[in-house]
Specification:
Blueprint lengths: L10 H10 L4 H11 L1 E9 L1 H13 L3 E3 L12 E8 H11 L6 H15 L6 E3 L2 E3 L6 E7 L14 H14 L3 E5 L12 H18 L4 E4 L3 H10 L3 E4 L9 H8 L3 E4 L17 H19 L6 E4 L8 H9 L12 E2 L5 H7 L7 H13 L4 E4 L2 H15 L1 H4 L1
Parallel strand pairs: 6-7, 6-13, 7-8, 8-9, 9-10, 10-11, 12-13
Antiparallel strand pairs: 1-3, 2-3, 4-5
Helix pairs in contact: 1-2, 4-5, 6-7, 6-14, 7-8, 8-9, 13-14
Length: about 400
């Protein structure tokens, strides 16, 4: 006899493991939800609601942890950790729907969180192409037509060199070309909307005329976004998560194009001045969720939105590493996830290497991001990272590709 521990993280994995040992199909349906566990965190619950959830989970054989003062109501609110199998959580959801104290709404939230966490995002149409998620990772190639971007500033200021670089990335496997006319590196100075527009529009026009490229405009300015979309861009990538320009949501909604919402703490010029968080992933998720609400209010459809945790944007090296390790937590928002680590300073600081020697470090972060749930990777070195993505997909997405 040889015993071992096996990892079962999803219902499909549990079902496969049960069928592999010859379990009856009817039994598999009953047992699989008991083989997969989840830990949910819910914030700022009133003690009566939290205590009811705890008692219900205990009755189902699970557990829930509250603040020490929750039991005697000496705290006004408490965060709550719910620990249980999918089977126990399903029973909890149904029971909470019958309670008072706002618990039916909590039940709906738990139900949505579990559904989105374990679901593949809906297909996303960008331009004439439809992106189907779950079977492969898509590549966004970076094209900075700027003077001062940290990696390639000044290299592609003229239209010929910029278009040439984009064509090389397309040939190497880029699915999207992300064109930016203002550096967002730490400490970067702001560029006027007129100058930013002048930098990007001519490049986008040429790319649209000479290639079938899907083009994303990387900007926080609605004026620039409008001009870029008119020139042929098919998507907006806003590093501010719709916070810097209040007209941006309306521009995106009227154009009917997809949007990438990113998390940032502060502004590029000062964002790396001692960034601090009390709950890193919770704060990122809340920021992005608020961005989704802004988008919805403007009329932007949820299924047209990609989210990005903003590696390096108001984060320390430790923050960035934690985000990569816990990336899958973002799936509760129900959107495809984009990750951009390419050549960034966290790699330089860990490996003690300059920008032009960070290929292997980028590859490691790309592979891990894909394993943790990334649907898009944003990179400079398209040929190499496309290979990394294909190899990683073969490992982590083999069930869906098989």
């Amino acid at each position: 006899m040889i015993g071992r521990v096996i990892e079962l993280n999803t219902l499909s994995e549990a079902e496969s493991a049960l069928l592999a040992i010859g379990s009856d199909k009817a039994g598999v349906e009953l047992m699989a939800p008991k083989a997969v566990s989840r830990v949910l965190k819910i914030t700022s619950l009133r003690p009566p609601a939290a205590n009811i959830i705890k008692q219900e989970m205990l009755s189902f054989g699970g557990e829930a942890a509250t603040a020490y003062g929750s039991i005697n109501h000496s705290v006004e609110t408490t965060d709550l950790l719910i620990l249980g199998t999918l089977k126990q959580l399903g029973l909890l959801i149904e029971k909470l729907k019958t309670h008072q104290f706002g618990l039916p709404a909590v039940a709906e939230q738990i139900e949505r969180i579990l559904r989105d966490y374990d679901s593949i995002p809906a297909p996303l149409k960008i331009g004439k192409n439809t992106f189907e998620f779950g079977s492969k990772t898509y590549i966004m190639g970076i094209l900075n037509v700027t003077l001062d971007s940290f990696s390639d500033g000044g290299k592609f200021l003229d239209v010929e060199s910029a278009v040439g670089c984009a064509k090389e990335m397309l040939a190497a496997g880029a699915d999207i070309i992300d064109v930016g006319g203002e550096s967002t590196r730490p400490g970067a100075k702001a560029v006027s909307a007129a100058e930013e527009t002048q930098r990007v529009v001519s490049v986008i026009k040429r790319l649209s005329e000479e290639t079938a490229a899907l083009i994303s405009i990387d900007t926080t300015k609605s004026v620039v976004a409008r001009a870029a979309l008119a020139a042929g861009a098919a998507m907006v990538n806003d590093i501010s998560g719709l916070r810097f320009d209040l007209e941006m949501p309306r521009v995106v909604a009227e154009a009917g194009v997809p949007l990438c919402l990113m998390h940032i703490k502060g502004v590029p010029r000062t964002m790396q001045a001692a960034p601090a968080y009390s709950d890193l992933m919770g704060e990122i998720i809340n920021y992005l969720d608020e961005g989704l609400a802004i988008a919805k209010k403007a009329g932007i459809l949820h299924e047209k939105i990609i989210i990005d945790p903003g590696i390096g944007f108001g984060k320390t090296v430790d923050h960035n590493l934690e985000i990569l390790a816990r990336l899958k937590e973002l799936k509760v928002l129900g959107c495809p996830i984009l990750v951009g680590t390419s050549r960034k300073s966290l790699i330089g600081q860990i490996l003690d290497l300059p920008v032009d020697e960070r290929l292997e470090g980028t590859a490691a972060t790309v592979a891990l991001a894909i394993a943790r749930g990334a649907d898009f990777i944003r990179v400079h070195d398209v040929k190499q990272m496309a290979r990394v993505a294909k190899m990683t997909d073969a490992i982590v997405r083999r069930e869906r590709n098989g």
